[in-house]
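Continuing the batch. This is chain 6 of the set; chains 1 through 5 are on the previous pages. Same settings as before, nothing changed between runs. Recording input and output for traceability.
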Amino acid sequence: MKITAVIMAGGRGERFWPKSRNASPKQFLSLTKDGETMIQKTVKRLLPIVETDDIYIVTNAAYKELVFEQLPAVPRENVLLEPCARNTAPCIAFAAAVISRKYEDAIMLVLPSDHLIGYEDIYINTLKKAVRAAEKGKRLVTIGITPEYPETGYGYINFGEEKGDVYAVERFVEKPDLATAKEYLASGRYLWNSGMFVWKISSVMHNIKEFMPDIYEGAVHIGQAFGTPDFTDVLVKEFTAFRSESIDFGIMEKASHIYTIPGSFGWDDVGSWLAVERINETDNDNNFIDGDVITVDAQRTTVCGGKRLIAAVGTRDIIIVDTDDVLLVCSKNNTQDVKKVIAQLKEQNRNEFV
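Output for chain 6:
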């Protein structure tokens, strides 16, 4: 079957503030020294398995020009613009309805735009396995990540019986506390939920129709209008009426024929500034330094500089991020609290910094 890819690129990336802003969220930033942005890397690594003409980007309408600028090879009609944020289920239904206008049926890879992969050959081989599995019947396949430690920041997939290259999914579980995460790791029956899915368009639309009929009807209307003069009006009317719903809750936790494939390909969801030291080389003192920076007795310090000289003296477990208008200094123990700064800025109507 034809293989298509849908890259979800509408997120805000608030935990990467102040680099990630409303006008330039995380997926459009480069967090590695090679200069490639997250979304550029996502598209590039798919090229061994998906033709560029069959790659679709679903993003917020405000990011249209960023996508055009960073991904000039992707056909402009493949850039699907959401008029508002409605989570992953409406995003996927929108894309499936549009792609079904081009192909009667096809395999659909659904991937986040802001993850990094360390071993791309293994990643492609894992996707190929998932494609073969998804071609059989009405299977919905998700790629889980073999856990390396008891992570409390991810949801998990509990898997059961092996069926060829795939495992039947018993249940999806929310982010656990540390003791539960240790139990999951010790059992060997849990994977991290990566948010990557593979299925036939007919399979996912069948389940959307069954479990979210309102979203199904709206998506069908959008698909029927695609390529016509009425498309924008229909899209705005139908999409804004959708409820905000994740594909995990809307379908994956309810449907039958759910399978998973374990993946070990150096996956990193790049969830916060802590990821920078994981995905880049550090010096002998475990510092990551980018920009015009002088360090004196600094250890385990991440510095992402801007135009100014930065001096880090005696710092330990600190993150420093400098932009033209904001300086962030954050303990590594508090990276999740960066979002609280954004909340305060919004309360103070200081939206120029958000």
